[in-house]
């Protein structure tokens, strides 16, 4: 029996062509499958943006409370309003929700022209003229007298108006964020007024903050970080 292919030449060429196409297709499919198996698909991107957290801001999470509120204060009138609004916040939570101060995390940020009220009576007694000027504060009861104590201090309880001010906030556990940039600026103002050095006066101011207060890099930065950690901002 002849061992050669008796099919016509064009039939043999057609068969070989089809065989080559099939082999190429199989090879491509196999190669693609093996590449897919070796190269994992990229992870799906999380569509929800998340802020980066820094350890310097962890104190914001250390305040106990079921509700968080951050008051951004930049002026003397703003501080007066804030003291009232914080009081309202505590009062309404107590009367309508039966929530006490321990249930509420409240921070008052003192920056810009409100920063001078972050320093205690000793600093106001010593540098009251400069602090009042920076705060644009005038005692309406006696406009010609420079304050010898923090007008809203939580320390002295002799003046009833002062007791209703920062003292009540401190008693309820309010924390104060004090702008470091403003503090540096105020230290410079005092240094020029008393012919002192900025560094020494800065150290003095930061060692004499009001109760429950802490220095933050910048007040505006604290606003940003607080909001990223779930505080309502006003």
CATH-defined fold name: Hypothetical Protein Ychn, Chain: A
How would you name the CATH homologous superfamily? DsrEFH-like
What is the terminal separation in angstroms? 101 Å
Tally the beta strands: 5
Order of helices and strands: HEHEHHEHHEHE
CATH architecture label: 3-Layer(aba) Sandwich
Task: Report the β-strand fraction as a percent range.
Answer: 5-15%
Mean pLDDT: 85
The number of helical elements comes to 7
The oligomeric state of the chains shown is single chain
Domains (count):
1
Helix/strand structural class? alpha/beta
- Outline, from the CA principal axes? globular
Helix fraction? Answer: 40-55%
Describe the protein in words:
The structure is a single chain. The chain is of the alpha/beta class. It has a single domain (57-233), classed as 3-Layer(aba) Sandwich (Hypothetical Protein Ychn, Chain: A), CATH 3.40.1260. 48% of the residues lie in helices and 11% in strands. The protein has a 5-stranded parallel β-sheet, sandwiched between helices. Strand 1 (67-73), helix 2 (76-97) and strand 2 form a beta-alpha-beta unit. Helix 3 (121-135) packs across helix 5 and helix 5 crosses helix 6 (198-206). The radius of gyration is 35 Å and the shape is globular. The protein starts with 8 loop residues before the first helix and ends with a strand. The mean pLDDT is 85.
